[in-house]
Amino acid sequence: MQTDHTIIHKVSAAIVAIVAGVALTACTAATTTTTGTATSTGTSTSAAALFADNVDSHADSNDVDYDASDAITITLADGASATTSSDGVSIEGDTVTITAPGTYLLSGTLSDGQVVVNSPDDGTVKLVLDDASITSGAGSALTVSEADEVVVILADGSSNSLVDGTGYDTSADDAPNAALFSMADLTIGGSGELSVTGNTNDGIASKDGLVILSGTITVTAADDGIRGKDYLIVAGGTVSVTATGDGLKSDNEEDDTVGYIQITGGTVEVSAGDDGMHAEGDLSVEGGTVTITTSNEGLEGANLLVSGGEIAVTSSDDGLNATQGSTTDSGQGGGGGGMSVDGSLLSISGGSLTVDAEGDGLDSNGTIEISGGTTVVHGPTNNGNGALDSNGGITVSGGTLLAGGSAGMAETPGTDSATGWVAVTFSSQVSAGQTVTIVKDGQTIATYTATKTIGSLVVADSSITTGESYEVQVDGGAVSTVTAGEGASNGMGGGRAGGPDGRG
Predict the structure, then answer these.
(1) pLDDT for the residue 66
(2) 328: exposed, middle or buried (C-beta count within 10 Å: 0-12, 13-18, 19+)?
(3) Tens digit of each residue's pLDDT (9 = 90 or more) over 59-104
């Protein structure tokens, strides 16, 4: 990828952590526990190394530039589509086929037709959608069967629509299975709007890389919303996805250089029946705004990195889940509670992250490393899960962490953490709406307002000093005293079997 453009492949450096006080909740009486400090070196180096070997993006920020005077115009109409040039364009019935690199400007409507790109020559095919509406009753609305690279450009002020058929056959290898389907690298950008409806399977799918630079894109899908097999990058624009399967997905499992998702900018909102974002490789959020409103697991990948942006995740199972898919016993101890460590990493080095999870809040089958940013976890009420859960241990060397949840599987940072932390186990449940305050010598260190019932709370922040005592208040009343750096717990790990892929 090009470092002089808007898409940045390298993982950005850790962002300096902020906020001394944060919201949290509590119940009534509490028993004391403590927290620890350590000499951890931070996470940015190890996280950068994990993400640095991913294949570079095919896209540049200027890919959406075009000269309208050089474009071949295609006017779509049922039974009467027309073009200003037969060079590179053939029309047969309600199927329009583009056969050569170049820029093509499409407008008009096909109520039961298809646009196909079959361009075997080297060079980019640019499709400028300018109030184009394509609906296919028998398959994909827009199919790229062969091309060097395809760029879909949403013309300024335009509103465009792609709708595929229902129940068409997708069983053959490389069969089109999305309303917008591409066998080639695909880039989407421009300042217009695009609505995509995938009635049979996916909304938008590329068998290579898929990059979204800009535009307002709304996807509704019977299975996955947006899928880039080799990688999926969102660098800008506004992307809204409603999917029965995964919202955003990259599923190439060949090696650790592919199958990644990277969010560097823009606004992404997902409502998913399965995972909000699912990467077989790495998954990073480095900027922009990400909101997962509904999901089974919010963000899942072999390694997870949050280094910037504003992220809010709501999930019925784990909020963030770092897992290699299957675990092998590394012989390590740490936070696994006897569970094996698979080498995955969940790294938070910047940004603002809020998690509301019914399963584990932050879950790693390897390690969790926090070196920056602000992380607030509203964890499970079920004692079989925890707000924090790792197989290889948790280290905090910067940033602010507040994690409330049930007490049965509660895990704390390790005593090797450079940042001080306190852990509280409440003797009676804290109710939703109550506020827990950590106080030192009359000064508020942190506050946390519960959104659901909690039995435990972990707070880590640079203002906390290991070995010192802190008062815990619930709704302004003192309930206990805790000592920072004591009461470390390992939880039970995140390595339980998941769905058909065996993920936790």
Answers:
(1) 97
(2) exposed
(3) 999 999 999 999 999 999 999 999 999 999 999 999 999 999 999 9
Q: What is the dihedral of CA 348, 350, 351, 356, to 10 degrees?
A: 20
The two tokens of residue 464 are 């906390």
Q: How far apart are CA 88 and CA 101, in angstroms?
A: 8
pLDDT tens profile 101-115: 999 999 999 999 999
Residue 381's SS3 state is coil
Q: Which of 372, 354, 366, 375 is nearest to 458 (CA)?
A: 375
Token digits of residue 281: 């490789």
Q: Which secondary-structure segment (H or E) carries 292? A: strand 289-294
The answer for residues whose C-beta is within 8 angstroms of residue 496's C-beta and 6 or more apart is: 504
Rounded distance, CA 442 to CA 405, Å? 26
Say how far apart CA 91 and CA 80 lie, in whole Å.
9
Residue 317 corresponds to which tokens in the numbers above?
């199972």
The answer for residues whose C-beta is within 8 angstroms of residue 407's C-beta and 6 or more apart is 383, 425, 426, 455, 456
Please give the single-letter amino acid code of residue 361: G
* φ, ψ of residue 64 in degrees (nearest 5): -85, 0
What is the Cα–Cα distance from 246 to 276, expressed in whole angstroms?
A: 6
Extended beta strands in 53-184, E state: 72-76, 82-83, 89-92, 95-98, 102-110, 114-118, 124-135, 142-146, 149-154, 159-163, 178-182
The DSSP bridge partners found for residue 395 are 369
Kindly report the backbone phi and psi dihedral angles of residue 55, in degrees, each rounded to the nearest multiple of 5, phi listed first: -60, 145
d(CA 411, CA 452): 19
Distance CA 60, CA 211 (A): 9
Domain boundaries, the chain: 71-229
User: Comparing C-alpha atoms, which of 367, 375, 380, 301 is closest to residue 335?
Assistant: 367
**Residue 55 CB burial class (10 angstroms; 0-12, 13-18, ≥19):** middle
* Count of beta carbons in the 10 Å neighbourhood of residue 31: 16
Q: CB of 25 within 8 A of CB of 404?
A: yes
DSSP state of 85: -
